Amino acid sequence: MSVQSPDRRSGKGPAPLLEVQGLKKHFPLYKGIFSRVSGQVYAVDGVSFRIGRGETLGLVGESGCGKSTAGRTLLKLLEPTEGKIMVNGEDITDLDTAQMLPYRRQMQMIYQDPYASLNPRMSAGEIVGEPLTIHRIATPKERRERVTHLFERVGLRRELMESYPHEFSGGQRQRIGIARALALSPELIVSDEPVSALDVSIQAQIINLLMDLQDELGLSYLFVAHDLAVVEHISDRVAVMYLGRIVETTDKTSLFETPLHPYTEALLSAVPIPKYGARDRKRVILTGDVPSPIKPPPGCHFHTRCPYAFARCRHEVPVLRQALSGHWVSCHLHDDGVTLPLAKRPEA
Q1: Could you tell me if residue 168 is inside a domain?
Q2: Which of 1-10, 129-138, 191-200 has the lowest mean pLDDT?
């Protein structure tokens, strides 16, 4: 399979902020008293994408498809099994912990569980200021001023800096996590389902805060989520992931109006009426269970549940290719050069 980033532009323009090429993360399975490797969990199995400056790429898919693992791997919180991670045109794939330190300032993460990601023994002010201490930035007085500014910027009163995580609500804890991510003035933030553990009203506040911060600071986001309504609101482009592979990527308007992959079609049909006028759409019910990432199906990983699958899908891996302008899809239905919305295709 090609490892070229699907939205790579021609020419010698500026390098993207982040580019991932053929990224893989496999976890070994051990068996027996000698802990011999008996297999692999193919969590991320060759994904490629890029994120430009000031851009938000939404990464969506079912639980267990590898979204969060991909985000942690590109930050090198998990070491990649294979592939390349490029930051500002520089390959960071094989850098060790010490060499990665300057890049840690450029890339930060917001975690899904706002409580589990905070040290209960540290005050909120200490948590937000910890990155500054680790990287030895500024004097103690300047650090405190920076933390005070970050608290106010994310909507928290400065008096709360002395409080501990258990004294905050879920939304306030996530604001602390956002402030901590902003402490080092990063360029890229990986948001790993940052609102999934919050009430709907609080979700809207956090999403709007993230968008305001992006406009103000020129941030880029990899926004990992399974809520398509949230992804449509915040993202510029969307990549759809299934069983460790990206199966479709394009701008959000094209994805929601003209999905080209059967899996994307099924995901969109499951969203409870995301737009006015969508009440007459057809619900796509997928048969069977998601295959195990320990032993994924040969060929197209989705063929065991796809209503359009034919013989070629069962043995040949589809390549992520451009089916329409700026619209990339990994599906044999589009290999013949004829690209139609799935609703207009006869069942195979």
Answers
A1: no
A2: 1-10
Residues in the chain: 348
> Are β-strands 107-110 and 188-192 bridged in parallel, bridged antiparallel, or unpaired?
parallel
Distances (CA, A) of 84 to 13, 90, 224, 299: 20, 10, 20, 24
pLDDT one-digit tens code per residue, 181-213: 999 999 999 999 999 888 888 999 999 999 999
- Our count of domains for the chain comes to 1
Mean local confidence (pLDDT), 285-295: 85
The predicted structure's pLDDT at residue 277: 53
336: phi then psi, degrees, rounded to nearest 5: -85, 0
Q: Shortest CA distance to 114 belongs to which of 104, 124, 101?
A: 124
**For residue 35, is it within any domain?**
yes
Strands 107-110 and 327-329: unpaired
Per the structure, the complete domain to which residue 41 belongs is given by 18-106+186-344
Q: pLDDT per residue over 9-46, tens digit each?
A: 444 556 799 999 999 999 999 988 888 888 999 999 99
Look up residue 96 and give its two tokens: 């060790």
Q: What's CA 37's distance to the chain center, in Å? A: 29
Residue 162 is assigned to a structural domain of this protein: no
Q: Specify the CATH number for the domain of residue 334.
A: 3.40.50.300
Confidence of residue 340 (pLDDT cuts 50, 70, 90): very low
Per the domain annotation, does 8 fall within a domain? no
